[in-house]
Request: fold
Amino acid sequence: MKVELLKKIPQVDALMKRIPPEYYENLENEYIKRAVRAELDELRGRILNGENPELSEEGVLSAVCARLARLTVDSLVPVINATGIIVHTNLGRAILSEELLDHTREVLTNYSTLEFDLETGKRGSRYVHAEKRLAEITGAEAALVVNNNAAAVMLILNTMAAGKEVVVSRGELVEIGGSFRVPDVMAASGCILKEVGTTNKTHVFDYEKAIGEQTGLLMKTHTSNYKIVGFTESVDIGTLAEIGKARGIPVYEDLGSGTIYPLGNLELPSVPESVAKGLDLISFSGDKVFGSVQCGIIIGKKAWIDRLKVNPLLRAFRMDKYTLALLEATLKLYLKREHVLESAPTLHMIAMDQETVKQAVERFVDRYRERLNDCGFVWTAMDLTAEIGGGSTPGEGIPSFGLELSTLKSPARFQRRLRQFEKPIIATLSKDCVYLDFRTVFERDFQRLMEGLEFADA
Ligand SMILES: *Cc1c(COP(=O)(O)O)cnc(C)c1O
Reply:
């Protein structure tokens, strides 16, 4: 029986001849042959296992093509974000504008002054590029940029307090998605965590008591993704800076998601305000509410920045030229508030008032009313609550507007079908309704959004 089945497995050459030509155009023959062999090996294994798999040439061919498609179809693709979460970590956080890319293209397709000083004709430093603008817009003495904020935290801890104790409030021992947990980062940086206070309350005297011979640093972490409410107390960063100054111990704040300019009337962690408190160092992410590329921005006292620059870890955390070019371009926009609000889509989406979102929904509805009515769902334009995301204002939403799709035959299927659309649409499912928040939907995607709704409805 098994022998009979094994004999029925199609031949490699026969399959190779029938692979559609577009695969040969885009793939080395070797890769195609490997996919054929892998499929045939799998079939042999299943037969030996007592199974009775599909063995027709057609069937095997389509399985091989599915393997090849996994190689040729892109996996990192654009999507329509209809969740209303602006800095959505899973959907790529901050968005860059076309304008920014145009500005940067020239630098990226040419040799550049990445580490070259035009004045002296000698080797320069990649770290000078963003520094002046960052210092200017934040009010800090000096700046340094690394791969991401997690790298910034590690570099700072390792430079300021390796082998020493770092005093942190128990209310701030955060875990930020994935694997970033303050106690683990502390250990990996070679520092000893000294927890003070309790989960809900930390007082000045807790810090005072904890400071001793072994203390290397006082650290404050922005509690990005949670909020302790009720009977709480924490020591504000200004007071912490004073304690540090009085005791001769440096103070560092991991701000997480910092902004430069006020956005609407939202309470967001302000970088310049923290700088004004006189901290030694501050770090935050470049791709959260700052609205630029993935990077970790470090600002503060020049003496400390200089020490970071000679830490060998910096080489492992260094930024690449593409990121640096895009950051420089964003920083240029930042020199003028209205430019950055206009041209950095993430900031634009955060600052937009509800009325503006509502008008966008009305334009969408006016344009596609008939097509919407022809769909199997009932649609209602309504108030929704969007989120800044990226751990900037945990627990607080911002008033937004969008569509509720109700009486769906299978809401879960509808939501899944939206994801299967050629430009996948990510929507929220709640209480049997699908919600589309228009705060995060670009107007240029309106037509595709409508097509996607029809696709999911079919
Ligand atoms: C997001 C965040 C980080 C990690 O920053 P990445 O840029 O994702 O590496 C660290 N600390 C805080 C407080 C954060 O909010």
Notes: The chain has 20 helices and 18 strands. Residues 15 and 61 are 6 Å apart (CA to CA). The first helix runs from residue 2 to 8. The chain has three domains: 2-72, 80-88+351-457, 98-338.
